Hints:
This protein has 745 residues and is an alpha/beta fold.
Amino acid sequence: MTTPTEQPSRPAPLVRTEMLGSGLALVTIDDPRAPHNTITPAFAAALSDELDELDRSAKVKAIVLRSGKPESFLAGANIEFVRSLRFAKDAEDVSREIGTRFARIARSKKPIVACVHGPVLGGGFELTLACTATVASDDPKTVFGLPEVKLGLIPAANGLLRVAERAGLRTAIDLGLSGRNIRAEAAMALGLCDDVVSEAIVLDTACELALRLASRPELRKSLPRKRLQRSAHADGGGQPGNALSAIAARALLEKNPIGRSVLFKRARETAAARTRGHYPATDHVLDVLERFGGRGFRSAATLEARLFGELVVSETAHRSIELFFAETALKKDTGLAPGEAATAHAIERVGVVGAGLMGAGIAAVTVQAGISTRMKDRDDAHLGRGLRYVKEVLDARVRRGAMSPLERDQAFGALEGTVEPSGFRRADLVIEAVFEDVELKREIVRTIEELVPETCVIASNTASLPIAKIAAAASHPERIVGMHYARPVPNVRLVEVVRTKQTDPNALATAVALAKRQGKTVIVVNDGYGFYTTRALIPFFGEALRLVAEGVAIESIDEAVVDWGFPKGPLLLLDELGIDLAEHFANSAHAAFGDRMRPPAVFGELARDDRRGRKNGRGFYMHRTGSRSGSPIRVDDTIYSTLLTMPRKKPMPEEIQLRCTLAMINEAFRCLDEGILRSPRDGDLGAVLALGFPAFRGGPFRYVDVLGASEVLRRTRSLEQRFGARFEPAPLLVDMARHGKRSYG
């Protein structure tokens, strides 16, 4: 309570303005309550009202808009606010209001130049597109994107339409459906940004441009033409002569009804094949852009607001937003137990033992993080293949625009290859990534221990072997952790960091910090065979193999599971992992967990026929020789003779889905019950990011909450009665059903 002489404190303003002279107004957006600026109706109102007032002022000639946050411009919509919207009409009204306010910015009589450094995402990107022009820093952190589709939403402030106006419908479709980020240079090439300079001069450049646009109106009028030329130049592969052809081709495809019909038909077919109808936001991105192409901006904006409202209250958006908050929380999670204190060691040099796909992949993500890395293998041939793979990974990032050629060269220059271990004497952390053999890994760990300093953390990259067994022969088992990278390492965001009962908290914190620097999402799990992700995957594979043995066609199994929401079917995944490696995992799980994890007999038949999957071109599918990625050619029908069975059963897809998915879900609940997992949050993110569990279902634990534990238990009991011990319900699932509990309270 205030006294009569006290004044209640006023919240700091979201927007503040200072005059710089020559009629230039510098507007700074800065939410004092948050580390990043985000868009809410209050923010949009404060900004547009301020800009309206400046537009009316006779003292102001031009305006520059910047962020008060040193490392970001505007991170998009405030997701907490979006999640609070309970009714579609409310969300529609919010979209329409913010779109209207941004439209007023776009109509400003005075030039407004956005000065950006750091992420410019979602509503932040939409705001810059509404400004007269944008000047961006060339820092790698400065990226533009419309990631809303990843949250089950669509852009809500007409930014998608402005991308289409500037860069064409194809670019708008690409950015809208992929949700990918693009660097500032790529944005400029597409006409979505007007200048890219070093961070040191980005504000000065923006101010100069704003005053130049104010004093020379013809420059402002020429901006659309210049943007069209840049985007056409990019479409034409950088060749001037091809740019005119690109403009003509875009007009032919996008400016007439027949061309647009072809464009959107192909886009819808591609999207449907990828999403199987589970992500309505992808359809709605195309709905909005098709309306824009046929009926113009205003009609498309009206449709956009209505569809955004529908999506905000959808189950898909709810599950996706929950995963977003879970991943955000994990970024701040040190992995330590409550009350446990530790300090992560500084990491300047990393060693990797093993230059196969796993070791080379780990080396690739480490040098991308700017860390000096030394990779060792037993001979020059193996080492050469590993170095070549790292180069291929970095080259692919350049082709995607994720890094520049110079950054690629700097990253590759941070990598050293060796067949001698002596270079590890100054390493801060060494990761062994050799074959899944406990004695081999023990030998490697003992060798590393003799070379590295006492402060060096030693990590084992194993998908299944208990870390305590690997560390048993070590002189200092307390500094040994597990770091299970999902394959392919450069593409899968998840890393399981595994702690044993002896693991020093400082070693754990150091491993977690390294994985985060590598751009990974980290879940810390306790030690045990298979940890979490491998252990949950084994019964999933096993059920698919049993279905094949029962006479169900390979393509029927994979298609049913993909239709349920997994990106790939279990039999194709087996080929990609390696059937021989999966058999090794299954046999070890049987030894660890008994009859409920007994491997299917077909593993032996596949081994006798030397079917190892993609690695030797012989699996459930035919693969292109030497292919490390891409789609298989087709099912290899000769496998049925190997298995002494032919497709004769055609169960309903629901039967296939039930058996495969409940096998995984039940094992996930066992992992939580046994303390392998720390929380349902970690289990859901681990399954979505590493196992392909459908994001729109939220992960195994969220899925059970939505369906109800009692219903999941009923289905599991039914499978147990039919198939025996392998479907014995996890005790935690039984307890939750009995007492009406939920994983998430």
